[in-house]
């Protein structure tokens, strides 16, 4: 313990005092902080209702993603889900096991290749997907209704442009 305290004191002693910047960052031609912040706050609020629903059953955002995509593409393989979510098998394993054990998702061996694992929602999993999507859909509808008639097309174009392409 004594050694750790010395290391801590040495680090703070060597650090030069930094100038405190009191002016906020402003948008420039290269960086649009207003849109960055709006995306941050929009995402925070967009996931808040599903987060509250998931918290009541001991789940989180990773569970939401799995339930969403398995319901949108029933029969997708575990490999497809890993590719869609851009996560590792290790990251998915715990979440998928919890969803299977809780009766939201079923995992079935592929008909041609028994090693292939296909994922399907159960009726309970479908109910959860809808319960999570409904408040998000209401939020989207309200936001789109506040804009001009072609807002949905513009939003779709913008969001598609924001996605990383393979």
Concise structural overview:
The chain is mainly α. It has 7 helices and 3 strands; from the N terminus they run αααβααββαα.
Question: Can you characterise this structure?
Answer:
This protein is mainly alpha-helical. It has a domain of 91 residues: Winged helix-like DNA-binding domain superfamily/Winged helix DNA-binding domain (Arc Repressor Mutant, subunit A). The chain is built from 7 helices and 3 strands. It has a 3-stranded antiparallel sheet with strand order 1-3-2. A hairpin with a 7-residue loop joins strand 2 and strand 3. The longest helix is centred in the first third of the chain and has 24 residues. The radius of gyration is 23 Å and the shape is extended.
Looking at the overall shape, the CATH architecture of the domain at 48-138 is: Orthogonal Bundle
Secondary-structure element string: HHHEHHEEHH
Class by SSE composition = mainly alpha
Distance between the termini: 49 Å
Assembly state of the chains shown: single chain
Instruction: Please indicate the percent range of residues in DSSP E strands (runs of 2 or more).
Output: 5-15%
CATH class of the domain at 48-138: Mainly Alpha
Number of strands: 3
What's the average pLDDT? 90
**CATH superfamily name of the domain at 48-138?**
Winged helix-like DNA-binding domain superfamily/Winged helix DNA-binding domain
- Outline the biggest β-sheet: 3 strands, antiparallel
Helix content: 55-70%
């Amino acid at each position: 313990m004594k050694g750790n305290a010395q290391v801590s004191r040495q680090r703070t002693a060597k650090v030069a005092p930094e100038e405190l910047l009191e002016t906020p960052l402003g948008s420039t031609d290269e960086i649009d902080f207003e849109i960055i912040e709006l995306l941050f706050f929009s995402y925070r609020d967009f996931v808040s209702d599903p987060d509250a629903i998931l918290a009541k059953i001991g789940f989180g955002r990773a569970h939401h993603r799995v339930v969403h995509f398995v319901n949108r593409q029933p029969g997708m393989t575990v490999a497809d889900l890993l590719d869609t979510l851009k996560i590792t098998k290790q990251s998915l394993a715990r979440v998928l096991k919890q969803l299977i054990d809780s009766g939201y998702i079923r995992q079935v061996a592929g008909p041609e290749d028994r090693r292939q694992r296909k994922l399907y929602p159960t009726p309970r999993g479908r109910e959860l997907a809808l319960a999570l999507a409904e408040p998000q859909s209401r939020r989207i509808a309200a936001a789109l209704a506040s804009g001009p008639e072609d807002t949905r097309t513009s939003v779709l174009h913008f969001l598609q442009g924001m996605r990383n392409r393979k």
